[in-house]
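INPUT
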Amino acid sequence: MLSQQAIISLLTKMGDDALIIGHRNSEWTGLGPIMEEDIAFSSMAQDKIGHAWALYRVMQEHLGGQDPDQFAFMRAEKEMRSCHFVELPIGEYDFSLMRHFLFDHAEAVRYESLENTAFEPLQPFAKKFKGEIKYHLLHADEWVLQLSRGSEESYARMQQALLHCMPLALGIFETSKAHEQTLIDEKIYPGEQALQARWLDRIYPVLSKAGLNLPGIESFTPVYGGREGYHTAYLQPLLDEMSSVFKLDPTATW
Amino acid sequence: MHTTEEVYDALQSVMDPEIPVLSVVDLGMITAVDINSDGILVKMIPTFAACPAVQYIQRNIQTALEEKFSVAITVIIDQETLWSTSRLAPGAKDKLEQFGIAAPQVVDGKAYNEILLQTPCPHCGSKNTYLRSPFGSTLCRAIHYCKDCSNVFEQFKPVE
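OUTPUT
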């Protein structure tokens, strides 16, 4: 018998990251620098929110969880398990693009590792999401390369965005004090440390092709807290906004 | 008692709302048809996990079958089967291209960005094309540009 609480903690943080980054990405709708980018961020937003919904649904069907919409929109800020990285406003395009690059590679290694998870109901979703995220990576890698090779200014912005994002991106891999070892022992997933190492192996080649300089990761202090319910000041206003329509009538059917 | 063939025939009239030349059968969205004394059970899957049209399509299937057959109709989402490009019916590629959308190119069941660079243009057939964006007007489409006939065109993207 697998530890349900441990699996719930894993699926909740994954779903919350996808839900929040999805809502952030959707803020580019109508504002993208060119039409294709507007469409790209909007499409990725739709994918992420769909992934969050599916993960919440797995918890509902197999782990005694709530209705996905209720779970997404009715929880208090303190109950959310998203990392700080996904909560930050979209900022300028360099930040959003670098966040997309670092976050999506992290998601890709995570879903790859879950294709054979001991928690079987998750396996088909891990496979499905991996196939969809491939297009997110195609997009992210291409633009990181193009902008890093563009002009002096675009290169400088990408380099600065990378240094700014790294401590936050390392926060994706914050371990769960209560459940990490259980999840590894029960072969649910390989653990955050292993995922972080695989992630670095994925992003290094692209960054080096782009000519961007990534200092050793020991020089960064990871931004932790989100997985324990401590969030940035940006999360509550976002939760208020994204749940405002739902909260008008939480029992309405759509 | 109705036959599975009759049900599939009826399903051929239920078109995808985003690609109206392809039926749910052409798209490989139907995973099972079960006929028993309780009525007809149809299992279906979405192409993309976040496809916003799933419930709409589910309702369309329900309505189409109810019009045709006077037994109870149940349409459910199949949780076990995953959609991939290989589920497209044999005739789907031609129908897509006649509609002006390039069909997904698949080599050994896999799609890579190199393949996305030489997607044949549905207007002039040239392979001198490049991917402009992996995201198009719907989740299942990408945008390409043809350097020979200078047209922007969409492709039904390959998914493993």
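end of record. Chain A touches chain B at residues 36-37, 39-40, 42-44, 46-51, 53-54, 124-125, 127-132, 134-135, 138-139 (CB under 8 Å).
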